[in-house]
Known about the structure:
The chain is 0% helix and 58% strand. The chain is mainly beta. It has a single domain, classed as Immunoglobulin-like. Strands 4-3-6-7-1-2-5 form a seven-stranded mixed beta sheet, with no helix packed on it. The termini are far apart.
Amino acid sequence: xxxxxxxxxxxxxxxxxxxxxxEWAGESEAFVTVTLTQRDAPAVxxxxxxxxFKPPDDEWMLEVKPAGNQKFAAGPAHAIGVLSAxxxxxxxVFHWSQDVQLEKS
Length: 105
C-alpha cells in the first residue's frame, strides 16, 4: 500500500486540509500521520488519524493545524507522510515526502 499528497492542498483560516489517495492491496485498515513545514510563513504542524481508514475508502483526509500562533499561508510547503497498513497480523509502514502547494479555499 502507498499514497501521495494531492496538490494543491486547501487552507482555511491557516489550517490545511491534507489528503491523498489510498491504494489498497489486500490490507484491512490503515492509519496516516502527516507533518507539514512551510518556511515562508513560517509554520509547521502535524496530524494523525484518530481512527483507521478501511476499504473501500479511496482517500484519507486530515486537518493539519499549525503549532502555536502560526498560520499556514498560500505558497510552497514540504509534506511528510507515514502510512501504517494492517494486513492480517502484520503492519507495513510506508514513508514518503513531497513538495506541495498550499492554496486558500
